[in-house]
Each structure stands twice: as structure tokens, then as C-alpha cells.
Amino acid sequence: MILTFSILLILSSVLLIVLVLMHKGRGGGLSDMFGGGVSSSLGGSSVAERNLDRITVGTAVVWAVCVVALGLLYRFN
Q1: Nearest-angstrom CA–CA distance, 27 and 40
Q2: Crossing angle for the helix pair 47-76 and 2-22, to the nearest 10 degrees
Q3: Which residues contact 49 (CB under 8 A, 6 or more apart)?
Q4: How far is CA 10 from the centre of its chain?
Q5: What is the torsional sign of CA 20, 21, 22, 26?
Q6: What is the pLDDT of residues 10-60, one digit of tens each?
Q7: Residue 33 confidence (pLDDT)
Q8: Of 62, 54, 61, 69, whose CA–CA distance to 2 is shortest?
Q9: Residue 31 near residue 37 (C-beta atoms within 8 A)
């Protein structure tokens, strides 16, 4: 059981890193410092961006559940 949650945690961690890096910079942060602020914001989100947001939140929930489950398994095992 611990091995399953550990593997799922590693996979969700890598996927979460990739998904966060795929997001478009909103401006005012580190993305402006490296030239990300030159693109114009046309307002509104595209369907692809909204789906990317949903997938990112879902992956973050899986990651958090794995962390809590591993903590409980290590505590009571």
C-alpha cells in the first residue's frame, strides 16, 4: 500500500510540475522579469486554458491525498 501511494505521489509530482509550467503567465510576477510580459492579454480564457486549470487542480488534489495517506500509513504502520 505504501509503495502504491509512493509511486502515485512521484507521478503526480512530476505531472504537477509540468502542468504548472504549461500555464500562461498572468503578469506581475517572475514571468515579467524574463520577458513574459510583452504578450498582450486579450481577456477571457480559452477552453484549453480552462481545461488545463481543471487538470492541474485535479492533479494537485491527487497529490495532496497521497501526501496525507502516506503520512497516515507511516504513522500507524
Answers
A1: 10
A2: 150
A3: 23, 24
A4: 13
A5: positive
A6: 999 999 999 999 887 766 555 555 665 555 555 557 888 899 999 999 999
A7: 56
A8: 69
A9: yes
